[in-house]
Write the structure tokens for this entry.
Amino acid sequence: MNNFLFDEFEGVSEKAWKQKIQVDLKGLDYNETLLWHTNEGITVKPFYSKEDQTHQHLQLPENDFFICETVFVDDVNIANKLAVDALNRGANAIEFVVDKTFDIDVLLVNIDINSNIRIYFKFNFLDADFIEKLSKATNSSNCYFNIDIIGNLAKTGNWFTNLKSDHEKLEKIVTQNNSIAINASIYQNAGANCTQQLAYTLAHANEYLNHFERNIADKIHFNFSVGSNYFFEIAKLRAFRILWNALLKEYGIENKEDAHIFTQPSLRNKTLYDYNVNMLRTTSESMSAVLGGTNTVSNISYDEIFHKSNEFGERISRNQLLVLKEESGFENAQHFADGSYYIESITQQLAENALEIFKQIEQGGGFLKQLKEGIIQRKIEESAQKEQELFDNGNLVLLGTNKIQNDKDQMKNDLELFPFVKKRSEKTLIQPIIQKRLAEKLEQQRLDNE
């Protein structure tokens, strides 16, 4: 077995490839013609070789990705039935989104939280006593509480109550397992580029580490959104694990289980018209999440932005993940990207660039200070505006929306939900980070013309 077919061929160095390309360019400049410089500050080359390998050591999840169903809790009986049905149809994780306290026993009936499933609770309110009660009732490392007072400030412009009260409640809550989430989705859905998302997520988490010190590290998990830049999104999740481990080492934390990452497709590129294309987008984004090494994926339905939650949409979104896992070879795919010259190069550049932004934030007084001063919001808005301009002039394409429109497509009478940014009148302490879809202005024009 020592004589392989390709042993007969001599290897070709990167320098030799580049020289050959330069000849074929017939006088054109290699750097100006073939190098692509992205908004993230990444340089993409026309080819990659083993010389681009970074030999990164990534501590990726040992287990296969979990398929999650998101259930909004209004009526606990209905929410329980939806969750049990989803588990029976292939999901092995549930995210409950809750706006108020609920009957714990009713919500969790017929759900074995100590089996091989995961339960996520996303709280849109802050009640330390109730969360402590819920933690005791579940008493399982398979349960994750999405509590993020800084994320709420960034998203809404206000604390849940006020700074002092929120921190006092959080100090009670952090004694529970998996009690703090860093909601990085806010930054992606508002238009931050990949480098910014990584830097802001790291700085966001560092605020909790600064306040509670190293003992809080094993109680933090992360919620990311993934966009349609396929390879960059794979690299983004991988780069974050590198950054998180580097930050923990600065706190003297070694040999800790790696970051727990919960992922959803982005809402930023989803469209009202030709909405079936959203299924293609969410499939691609879910693939990026899996190959990036996420722990759990919660897909969104193709009609998420304009229909109320419905059985058909939820079934399709769940089945997309089941097809990826059971029929498309994505089972235990968390290591498939290992050794890819291109992905390793992007991962390294994203991590390095994000680390520089993180250091600037810390030198400027930290994430919370810059959030209060509006610096973070301004940087995200600048990135979002660049992306919006690319969409408006057709260089960033959303099929069926700003390219290859179906003029007969009518949506005005099919809107169960308001699909655009809502104007808010309440007073805020800081400028909130506004999450907005790229197609909103164009869609509003089309609706007016129907």
